[in-house]
């Protein structure tokens, strides 16, 4: 049976996506902490202070451990989804609960990869689509946790969008360049209008960069659709949080996850939706 047969290919893609999702859990957890450490060092430098040396902390070291008891997670305890099920969602040492979000991110990483390969194939377009979706997945959960969209992810995503479209992989290069500029400027304008009218910030700079990155990947024609979809998704999720979880409506809700979800929808069904409204 050839490797290109969907019966063989898609399970392999799912397995790769699950493993990438496991790594994305590390990115989601550690990248904001790495940024905080970097900011502390920069602030100390500005004050002319020298902070005491701390152990290395990045996406590779130290090894993953239980936050409750410090138990080092073994390779067998780190198998995507399966380990969480076998351990029944608890640490093997202290029985502290392990968040169900870890296997959720792994499953999403796998399913997004399967959808991307099924839609775009196993060539450059399919691989690029997987990279875009995995990055959007990481940004979504980081923004939910911290209300930050790190430049370490948004800016490489923007440049990658321009590079993959050098040969028109998703859209012509001209559309990608205009999309990157228009995406950034549109939310930048909304930000300043809101600040002038209300006297406070309505969104962060990371949102500008994320929409600019989506414009670079999908072209300027998708931007109105992405903004519309993100508003609809954001309203639906925001209302659900208020109704079912009793979230205070005065608490800021990050906009980045809704942009990311809208970008994923536009990647798969954008041209169809645009033709539906603008035949």
How does this structure look, described?
This protein is mainly α and 279 residues long. 67% of the residues lie in helices and 0% in strands. The longest helix has 41 residues, at 6-46.
Topology of this structure?
Blueprint: H1 6-46, H2 82-86, H3 101-120, H4 124-146, H5 151-164, H6 173-198, H7 205-218, H8 223-245, H9 256-277
Helix pairs in contact: 1-3, 1-4, 3-4, 4-5, 4-9, 5-7, 6-7, 7-9, 8-9
Short description:
The protein is an all-alpha fold and 279 residues long.
Summary keywords:
9 helices; 279 residues; single chain; mainly alpha
Mean pLDDT: 90
The SS-based structural class is mainly alpha
The low-confidence runs, each spanning 5 or more residues with pLDDT under 50, are: none
Shape: globular
How many helical elements?
9
Distance between the termini: 42 Å
Beta-strand content bin: under 5%
Summarize the helix and strand pattern as letters: HHHHHHHHH
Report the major sheet: none
Radius of gyration: 20 Å
Helix proportion range: 55-70%
Please report the total strand number as a whole number. 0
């Amino acid at each position: 049976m050839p490797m290109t047969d969907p019966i063989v290919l898609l399970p392999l893609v799912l397995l790769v996506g699950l493993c990438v999702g496991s790594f994305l859990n590390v990115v989601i957890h550690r990248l904001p902490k790495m940024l905080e450490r970097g900011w502390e060092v920069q602030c100390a430098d500005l004050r002319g202070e020298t902070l005491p040396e701390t152990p290395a902390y990045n996406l590779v070291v130290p090894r993953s451990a239980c936050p409750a008891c410090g138990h080092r997670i073994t390779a067998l305890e780190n198998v995507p989804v399966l380990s969480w099920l076998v351990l029944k969602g608890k640490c093997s040492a202290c029985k502290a609960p392990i968040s169900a979000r870890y296997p959720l991110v792994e499953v999403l990483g796998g399913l997004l990869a399967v959808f991307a390969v099924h839609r775009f194939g196993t060539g450059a377009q399919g691989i690029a689509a997987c990279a875009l979706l995995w990055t959007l997945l990481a940004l979504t959960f980081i923004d939910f946790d911290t209300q930050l969209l790190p430049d370490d992810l948004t800016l490489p995503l923007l440049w990658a969008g321009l590079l993959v479209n050098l040969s028109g992989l998703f859209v012509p290069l001209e559309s990608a360049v205009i999309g990157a500029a228009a995406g950034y400027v549109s939310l930048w304008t909304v930000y300043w209008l809101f600040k002038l009218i209300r006297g406070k910030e309505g969104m962060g700079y990371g949102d500008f960069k994320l929409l600019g990155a989506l414009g670079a990947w999908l072209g300027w024609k998708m931007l109105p659709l992405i903004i519309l979809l993100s508003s609809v998704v954001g309203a639906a999720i925001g209302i659900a949080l208020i109704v079912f979880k009793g979230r205070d409506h005065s608490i800021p809700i990050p906009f980045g996850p809704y942009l990311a979800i809208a970008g994923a929808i536009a990647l798969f069904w954008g041209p169809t939706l645009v033709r539906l409204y603008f035949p």
